[in-house]
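User: Before I run my own analysis I want an independent prediction to cross-check against. Here's the chain; please return only the structure tokens and, at the end, one sentence I can use as a sanity check.
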Amino acid sequence: MAIDGSDYSWRALEYACSLVKLSGGSLVIMTVAPKNAPVPVLFADGDCLTAQIGDEILDAARSVMRGQKISCSYLLERGGNVADHILHAEKAENCDAIVLGSRGFGKLEGLFRNSVSQVIVENADIPVIIVK
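Assistant: Structure tokens:
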């Protein structure tokens, strides 16, 4: 599940949650931050070591996921090609499917903009679900 903070990606997160609840699986939520985004900070609170994710999108996703009763992990990648990061995470995390939000580009505009979802659909080895 890749999110970018758009309305489409939040709808995709809701859809991914419903799929995970039905399957009893787990969810990997990822985003790709610009290279200059703050680095996550580790801090100790008593006996607990916690990673405070510096990326606001993953912080917001973590808030959405509270109380969902879904096994969930968070992945923050930095800079580079977003589609490449998603495709790499698909393999590294052994995912069964990729859920993405659509930006709503038409076919022609998506072709010129090299839409992330189009690149993922064309290159993923697993099912890809695009949520509008």
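Sanity check: The beta strands are 26-33, 41-45, 48-52, 71-78, 98-101, 128-131.
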